[in-house]
Design a protein that fits this description.
Strand order of the largest sheet: 1-24-23-22-21
CATH architecture: 6 Propeller
Number of helices: 3
Number of strands: 27
CATH topology: Neuraminidase
Helix content: under 10%
CATH class: Mainly Beta
Structural class: mainly beta
CATH superfamily: TolB, C-terminal domain
Strand content: 35-45%
Length: 363
């Protein structure tokens, strides 16, 4: 058996997803999408999640959540967010998690990663099947490709993969193949330039989006780049450095997620400073005294400084088909499927609770 290969991970402060208070931006073509409030009750009230780290949609719309902050389990809900069951249990043995980091349902099986790097395979009914002979510690951005090969997006840290942001990890334990950068030199002050967001196009091709600029590439499972396009937005210059404390420095514009929908359109999540952003005296004072409150870094608090933009693009021509702006207090975290997004809202007691959003596509 080949030795397990550890893939070190770099995580951003949040991996890492109906829209109240949204507005549409003037599109270059008739609007292709509109985000509206989902009538589904907030799933946080249904299953008492506390800021789940990762969410994914499976067959028949079932929802899977890696719940790190409450039960350290994988929680399974139906398409409406109603609790059904848990997957695994807390611990360090077979079928157990110290802290689940990703969950990838597909067909009749589910792959789950743990913070210590262990990767487990479960049947769709929740029964533990086996442990995969690979190590992927603390990975928030992972895709499942053909043959259960996993695509991990994270900056390399070992001499072998240093400077390479993408890693194809076979399920049989053979060494990972790292790739994805033309220049492997890394400026310590610009490590964010290695951040990538990934999305399936098919079982063997996938989209890769840079966080620091509006550049999206299509790659195949042979680690060959097939397409690259870079879009120009006046409000999204390439990021030269990551901004500091949000209430002190104007937040940097960045790309936060990508998804291909059933129409072949690319749906892109971006984030920029609010138009009315101004320095926050309290945050500035706390920063100077180096006594910032930890609550300042809660995801929903982040929304007082930024707004999020969803753009719908033609994946062949990159034409803008439509866009909407989330300038509400609720944070979109990631795409679940073509019609749903996952995000966070703040509960009455300050908890970060999950919420579902619905993306309505125009005919």
């Amino acid at each position: 058996m080949q030795p397990r290969r550890a893939i070190p991970i770099f995580c951003s402060c949040y991996a890492l997803l109906a829209l109240a208070g949204c507005r549409t931006e003037a599109p270059q073509r008739p609007a292709a999408a509109l985000v509206t409030q989902d009538t589904t009750p907030a799933i946080g009230d249904s299953i008492a999640l506390r800021a789940p780290y990762f969410a994914q949609a499976g067959d028949r719309g079932k929802l899977f959540f890696a719940d790190q902050n409450r039960s350290e389990l994988v929680i399974v809900a139906d398409s409406s967010g109603k609790f059904e069951r848990t997957l695994g249990r807390k611990g360090k043995g077979p079928g157990e998690f110290a802290r689940p980091t990703f969950v990838l349902p597909k067909g009749d099986s589910v792959i789950v990663g743990d913070v210590d790097g262990r990767v487990s395979l479960f049947a769709s009914n929740g029964q533990y099947v086996r442990s995969l002979p690979i190590l992927i510690p603390n990975a928030p951005i992972v895709l499942r490709l053909r043959g259960d090969t996993l695509l991990v997006a994270q900056p390399g840290r070992t001499p072998e993969d240093f400077g390479l942001p993408l890693h194809l990890v076979p399920p049989d334990g053979t060494p990972a193949h790292s790739f994805g950068a033309d220049d492997r030199s890394v400026d310590p002050a610009r490590q964010f330039a290695q951040w990538r967001w990934v999305a399936n196009e098919s079982d063997s091709t996938f989209w890769v989006a840079r966080a620091d600029r509006y550049t999206i590439e299509r790659w195949n499972s042979r680690a060959q780049r097939e397409t690259t396009f870079t879009l120009t937005r006046k409000w999204f210059p390439p990021m030269q450095r990551s901004a500091g404390t949000e209430g002190v420095e104007r937040p940097s514009t960045r790309l936060m997620g990508v998804h291909q929908d059933r129409h072949g359109h690319l749906v892109v999540l971006l984030e920029r400073a609010r138009s009315d952003w101004a320095p926050n005296a309290a945050a500035e004072a706390a920063s100077k005294s180096q006594k910032e409150s930890s609550t300042q870094y809660l995801p929903t608090h982040h929304m007082q400084y930024v707004e999020q933009v969803i753009e719908i693009l033609d994946s062949r021509t990159t034409a803008l088909l439509g866009s909407v702006v989330n300038d509400s207090k609720y944070l979109i975290m990631q795409f679940l499927d073509d019609d749903r997004l996952f995000g966070l809202r703040e509960g009455k007691d300050g908890r970060q609770l999950p919420i579902l959003w619905r993306l309505d596509h125009a005919p």
